[in-house]
């Protein structure tokens, strides 16, 4: 019966303990929403302020201008999947509509200096600078901007999450060069982009680091190419840098974020000390904003720099150190570009034995054929080994796994050195990943790296296995590194107090495929898990894609001074360069026929073919598998409806073979390393851009070539907008001859009716959840019925009333309700 202890920490029963956790989770969720509301208000304030700045653009070009207030609050609502999140708004919060902007021209700098307070800003009074920083939009660095902030047209929301640009741009900015990194909390709305302060406003007088280095602001801008930086600055300035300053343009973001962090995951005393307020400055701030915005800007709390002036004295020294760092980083950037331009390999000239890792690990690496590091390993290892929190973005198949497994092994070695008196060995490193297949793969990889480390063990905790067996394994076998999926890990944390005790020794937490782990599907579990871990730990987040929302949420698990390493680079394509991507638009009734045709063509061309076919849902995957099997193709299936043992067996078989086709759902989308996949076919629109990139990333790994085909129905073409920046070529679909069509139709007929019905239900559920399609229910029902007919259902299967209600499909024509 359930296993696990009868009492939990604090003498609570299992249910009390569970309820307590749930309550805490609810409180956190509320905190998060409060935080979002404050962000929204801050956004509103900065918009109003922007509209009041002389030179603000009257109209932003569509798609490039700032998000409207409405769009923003909708985005907040979306982010938290709370339809009621719009209710966060209330009348006291200020006007909903955007204020009009007075003029489109950029004023002369002198005029700009006056700003709204009417006070000249030429003096070197710190309070004035403070005000100015708060009033002025933070300049953004844009190549070729010549030291001026970009106009609205140049604003590109995709550029918001760059390594260090936001505050580097302070250095580049002719006038704001003197502002310390802490000043990133100043007003910055995407719409407030016209800034042009007088050159005379620079206390350092040297034009900032960039100018000092290169002589001109133009070259300085070029110097601060994102690709080279890898957040050097953060390392120097430690906790004073807030990388989110680039993505959070709202001035008020700091305080709520701080509060949230405390509320959510607690904060170290170090962070506490940072959050002190200075009464003086906040008074000035309030006076200004109250005058300008009345009740719309009544925020009382504001993080004010405690030792700001103290720090600024030391600025020159820091600049020197930064220059040094940049020089080092430049070497790395050049090297990487060289490799990429040659298109040969992602390996760099740096060897593992130069990375400061244990010689036993180096030996194991050499046995596995790893001698040189890949780009991401070269960039990540020094920072990870230094003990910093890191968020790392690198393309699929570039060796991220080793980049975090190696620091994990080092953290165990360090931990074992310092912890000798433990009765039960603590778990020193925890790797969280979204799928079971990935967890098994990572465990195997870690075992390879641990070959010569006797007494250090790695284990996996994944769903689909027996809880009791896990427990026994954890107790009997060494386990200093744990690779887990969130759900099963949480089961152990909540049900086995001795397990939680072992986690108290944790030194390193890794979130692989961090974007997925931090999205809404997993976010709550991750919060609970992180809550039960010691706060004094290092956290590493790895992913090939890091969407804006995730970048924000990631701040909750990372320390404030974390480093963002982006090896993809500004404006670079996120997909492997050697993968040829194409899209075919075909009536969805013909998708199965087209898949068959494409497979035959590919098999004819590639002797050692290895193909993955991604379907939208588990049941559609099963349908596709049965159909292709009947067509005598060498095919296997993996999806969530299959038992774990089966999934593991098929996964291993597919990894080790070629001349095989794997039909799968999204359980194989991320991280799974199947070498030498020659073709990836994605049938139907993926849930989002990230899914497309990760699925495609199953081919073209380790710099090899590959092919990706996206099969869309005409009504799914909207998805092409989401991947418009990727090199996807739209091709005309080949004709399907009558003979092939007949063969496929015959195979469809043999599929069991219950599978067809389940496929229909799953299809309906999937597209109902996709906003672009699910919003028009009548059209959705019609499309679903056409899909049903194409798989041989004479009439659409009925769905439960409750399900129909939940999906918003009750009383929709074409939807049959089960009596
Ligand atoms: N330094 C190295 N030298 C040679 N091969 C390497 C090296 N590092 C990784 N590899 C190989 O590169 C392949 C991809 O590695 P890995 O699975 O870690 O990529 P990834 O970036 O995690 O991919 P994904 O984003 O899909 O999770 C693996 O086959 C791995 O063995």
Automatic annotation (TrEMBL):
SMART domains for the chain: DEXDc, HELICc
PROSITE patterns attached here? HELICASE_ATP_BIND_1, HELICASE_CTER, Q_MOTIF
Q: Which Pfam families match?
A: DEAD (PF00270), Helicase_C (PF00271)
| E.C. code | 3.6.4.13
Where the record annotates domain DEAD-box RNA helicase Q, the positions are 350-378
- Listed GO molecular functions? ATP binding; hydrolase activity; RNA binding; RNA helicase activity
Domains as described in the record:
The Q motif is unique to and characteristic of the DEAD box family of RNA helicases and controls ATP binding and hydrolysis.
| Family named by the database record | Belongs to the DEAD box helicase family.
List the protein's name: ATP-dependent RNA helicase
Instruction: Please give the organism.
Output: Urochloa decumbens
């Amino acid at each position: 019966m359930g296993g696990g202890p009868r009492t939990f920490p604090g003498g609570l029963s299992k249910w009390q303990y569970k309820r307590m956790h749930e309550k805490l989770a609810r409180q956190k969720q509320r905190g998060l929403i409060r935080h979002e509301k404050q962000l929204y208000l801050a956004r509103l304030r900065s918009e109003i302020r922007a509209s009041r700045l002389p030179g603000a653009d009257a109209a932003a070009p569509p798609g490039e201008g700032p998000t409207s207030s409405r769009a923003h609050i909708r985005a907040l609502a979306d982010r938290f999947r709370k339809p009621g999140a719009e209710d966060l708004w209330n009348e006291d919060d200020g006007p909903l509509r955007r204020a009009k902007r007075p003029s489109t021209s950029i004023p002369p700098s002198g005029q700009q200096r006056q700003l709204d307070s009417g006070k000249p800003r030429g003096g070197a009074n710190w309070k004035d600078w403070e005000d100015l920083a708060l009033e002025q939009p933070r300049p953004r660095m844009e190549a070729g901007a010549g030291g001026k902030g970009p106009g609205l047209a140049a604003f590109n929301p995709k550029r918001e999450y760059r390594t260090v640009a936001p505050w580097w741009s302070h250095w580049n900015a002719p006038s704001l060069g003197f502002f310390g990194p802490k000043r990133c909390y100043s007003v910055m709305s995407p719409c407030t982009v016209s800034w042009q302060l007088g050159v005379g406003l620079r206390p350092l007088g040297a034009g900032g680091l960039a100018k000092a280095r290169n002589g001109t602001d133009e070259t300085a801008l070029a110097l601060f190419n994102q690709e080279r930086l890898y957040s050097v600055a953060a390392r120097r300035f430690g906790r004073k840098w807030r990388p989110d300053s680039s993505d959070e343009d709202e001035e008020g973001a700091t305080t709520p974020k701080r509060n949230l962090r405390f509320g959510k995951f607690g904060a170290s005393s170090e962070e506490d000390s940072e959050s002190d307020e200075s009464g003086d400055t906040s008074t000035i701030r309030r006076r200004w904003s109250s005058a300008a915005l009345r009740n719309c800007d009544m925020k009382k709390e504001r993080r004010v720099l405690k030792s700001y002036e103290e720090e600024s004295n030391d600025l020159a020294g820091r600049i020197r150190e930064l220059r040094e760092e940049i020089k080092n980083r430049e070497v790395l950037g050049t090297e990487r570009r060289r490799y990429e331009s040659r298109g040969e390999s992602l390996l760099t000239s740096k060897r593992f034995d130069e990375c400061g890792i244990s010689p036993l690990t180096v030996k194991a690496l050499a046995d596995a054929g790893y001698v040189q590091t890949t780009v991401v390993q070269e960039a990540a290892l020094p920072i990870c080994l230094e003990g910093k929190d890191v968020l790392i973005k690198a393309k699929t198949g570039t060796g991220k796994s080793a980049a975090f497994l190696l620091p994990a092994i080092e953290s165990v070695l360090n931990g074992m050195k310092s912890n000798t008196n433990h009765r039960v060995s603590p778990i020193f490193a925890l790797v969280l990943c979204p799928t079971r297949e990935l967890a098994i793969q990572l465990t195997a990889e870690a075992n390879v790296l641990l070959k010569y480390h006797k007494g250090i063990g790695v284990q996996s905790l994944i769903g689909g296995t027996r809880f009791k067996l896990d427990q026994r394994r954890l107790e009997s076998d060494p386990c200093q590194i744990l690779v887990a999926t969130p759900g099963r890990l949480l089961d152990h944390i909540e049900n086995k107090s001795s397990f939680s005790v072992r986690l108290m020794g944790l030194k390193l937490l890794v979130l692989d495929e961090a974007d997925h782990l931090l999205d809404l599907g997993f976010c709550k579990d991750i919060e609970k898990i992180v809550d039960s871990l010691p706060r004094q730990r290092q956290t590493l987040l790895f992913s090939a894609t890091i969407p804006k929302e995730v970048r924000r949420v990631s701040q909750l698990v990372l320390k404030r001074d974390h480093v963002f390493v982006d090896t993809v680079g500004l404006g670079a394509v996120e997909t492997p360069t050697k993968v040829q991507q194409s899209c075919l638009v075909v009536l969805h009734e013909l998708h199965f026929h087209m898949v068959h045709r494409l497979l035959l063509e590919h098999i004819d061309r590639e002797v050692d073919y290895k193909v993955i076919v991604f379907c939208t849902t588990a049941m559609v995957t099963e349908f596709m598998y049965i159909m292709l099997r009947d067509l005598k193709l060498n095919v296997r299936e993996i999806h969530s409806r299959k038992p774990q043992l089966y999934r593991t067996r098929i996964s291993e078989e597919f990894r080790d073979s070629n001349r095989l086709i794997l039909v799968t759902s999204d359980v194989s989308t991320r991280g799974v390393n199947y070498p030498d996949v020659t073709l990836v076919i994605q049938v139907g629109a993926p849930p989002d851009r990230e899914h497309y990139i990760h699925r495609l990333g199953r081919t073209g790994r380790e710099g090899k070539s590959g092919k990706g085909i996206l099969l869309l129905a005409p009504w799914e073409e909207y998805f092409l907008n989401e991947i418009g920046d990727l090199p996807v070529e739209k091709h005309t679909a080949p004709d399907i001859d009558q003979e092939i069509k007949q063969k496929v139709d015959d195979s469809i007929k043999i599929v069991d009716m219950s599978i067809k019905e389940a496929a229909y239900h799953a299809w309906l559920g999937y597209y109902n959840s996709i906003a672009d399609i699910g919003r028009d229910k009548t059209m959705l029902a019609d499309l679903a019925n056409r899909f049903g007919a194409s798989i041989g259902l004479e009439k659409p299967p009925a769905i439960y009333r409750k399900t129909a209600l939940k999906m918003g499909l009750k009383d929709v024509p074409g939807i049959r309700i089960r009596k």
